[in-house]
Amino acid sequence: MGDIRRRRAVALGITAGLVAPLTLALGTAPAQAASCTTQTGPYQKQVEKFLGLPVDGKQSSSDCKAIQAFQTKHGITPNAGYAGPVTWGVMDLMNKQKAVGNKPNKDGKCPVNKGRIACVNLTLQLSWIQDGEKLVYGPVPVRTGRNGYETRTGLKKIYWRNIDHVSSIYNVPMPYAQFFDGGQAFHSVGLSMWNPPGSHGCVNMTKTTAKKYWSLLKKGDDVFVYGRKPGT
């Protein structure tokens, strides 16, 4: 029993050393493949077009397999190949992100008078780094807070960085964590950026993006979050 207590004490000590205030992190992992449905979904034609399938508005075996593969890749559940609102919502968001091109701040909503700043557009689930009007990096898809755990909007500053952070609430790794608002942070995750419903408040990124943000930003740099994530 003494050894068990000592091991627990050591584990708690390690965790305490990695704690940031109210760390908010991840969502759910992708689900296993379900059996394929024969039902035609309400967004059948839109989904078929997005996936480059014959657009006839009728569910087929090949349609289902292609839709199911997309759902499984991005952690959409249930992943039965049904062309429903959640699946189409992800695809529609992808289309809107692509349409932005290399002008993410075309509407001028992210401040251009702050020097280097990381911008987060919740509506389009995009982030980028700019310096004045110059685009430094991005835009890249991100995964922000779900309904009830929204990523808070406004002008903030990076106040703490921890390259090997572990969440004290969810007990999950948060590599390349850069905290900017009460425990909400940029950090990498091993999930699709289009995995619904979203994070517990943090701005999730791919490892490549998180490493780039780590190299380009520093403590004290500005972060501006605006818009509203679909479904929140």
Structure description:
Keywords: Cell shape, Cell wall biogenesis/degradation, Peptidoglycan synthesis, Signal, Transferase. InterPro entries: LD-transpeptidase (IPR050979), LD_TPept_cat_dom (IPR005490), PGBD-like_sf (IPR036365), TAT_signal (IPR006311), Transpep_catalytic_dom (IPR038063). It holds the Pfam family YkuD. Residues 115-226 form the L,D-TPase catalytic domain. Residues 1-33 form the signal peptide. There is one protein chain. By secondary structure, the chain is an alpha+beta fold. It folds into two domains: 44-98, no CATH class; 103-226, L,D-transpeptidase catalytic domain-like (Beta Barrel). The N and C termini lie far apart (47 Å). It has helices at residues 2-17, 44-50, 61-74, 85-100, 207-216; strands at 116-121, 126-131, 134-141, 154-157, 160-166, 173-181, 184-188, 203-205, 222-226. Helices cover 27% and strands 23% of the residues. It has a five-stranded mixed beta sheet, with helices on one face.
Global outline: globular
- What is the overall pLDDT average? 88
Oligomer: single chain
Into which percent range does the helicity of residues fall? 25-40%
Number of domains: 2
List the helices and strands and how they pair.
Blueprint: H1 2-17, H2 44-50, H3 61-74, H4 85-100, E1 116-121, E2 126-131, E3 134-141, E4 154-157, E5 160-166, E6 173-181, E7 184-188, E8 203-205, H5 207-216, E9 222-226
Parallel strand pairs: 1-9, 7-8
Antiparallel strand pairs: 1-2, 2-3, 4-9, 5-6, 6-7
Provide tags for this entry.
232 residues, alpha+beta, L,D-transpeptidase catalytic domain-like, 2 domains, four-stranded mixed beta sheet, 9 strands, 23% strand, globular
